[in-house]
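Q: Here's a chain of 330 amino acids. Please give me its 3D structure as tokens.
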Amino acid sequence: MRLKPRIPDTRTMVRRAARHGSALLTALGVALSVGLVALLALTLGATPVPARAAGAPHDAAHDDRGRVLASAQAPRRIISLLPSLTEAVCALGDCERLVGVDRYSDFPARVQGLPRLGGLDDAQVERIVALKPDLVLASPSARVIERLEGLGLRVLALEANDLGATHRVLQAVALALGRPGEGERLWQGLDRQIQVAAARVPTGWRGRKVYFEVATTPYAAGESSFIGELLARLGLGNIVPAKLGPFPQLNPEFIVRAQPAVVMADAESLRGMAARPGWGAIKALQQQRACGFAPGEYELLVRPGPRLGEAAAALADCLGRLAPPEAAAP
């Protein structure tokens, strides 16, 4: 499976989808039985909010495994192994506590000089331990979690599939940093930015359906993903229904038949789309109703973290430059 090289947050979700069988969509298209749809909804749906551990304080940080991060004091040395979590730490004002990050964390600029410690599948355990962190932030999919915990390190495993989970993750990170209430403040600011962006989307785009590509195989952002929910907040629809999961692999014929009103992808992938077998029949590509995002903007869109308000603005900017279908040239 070929994925964009710089989208590890979304990559974890795509990888989980592939592991649980969404590759079946390539062969089956949208002809899914009721039973398979139910199974996909269960296996590919948003990460559930974990149950609160018995006796845990209400201001304790809980991760996606339901574990409580108990500590007498806030961590002073933090390692983050996911870009969205790195950005969350910095947005909460604690960049200086970071002592190491994954290879893809590149924002804000001050984290670029920190030690690079690998990624989801190849995190460098020895180097992590040598940095003596008192907290490691990681995706629940990271293979290194059990080893780190076996070596006595505290790990908070967090990941956001949808906007609700993004809200929860920001709150959990804030609690872990000893900043109760700051996660909610950050989320409220982000939410206001999305509202402002939504007000700028031309009315002709309301209800129009989008194909948002996250990998060229092709994998797409569906209605139930944080990207799909962000598009919905802007008044847009999605060719990928929620029942297929957040980031399903699609039969290319399904995309052509769906005839999205607008196509969105990273700029490099968009340039080659019309040359794919059959894709020249997609009217949005013929009529240049497409948003090709440069790397910096694309990263905003595929990281479920504190810059999603800016991501919404980038989407609104692109739609403002495009003529909606009823005004497009025939």
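Q: Can you summarize the key feature?
A: The domain at 8-45+201-319 is CATH 3.40.50.1980 (Rossmann fold).
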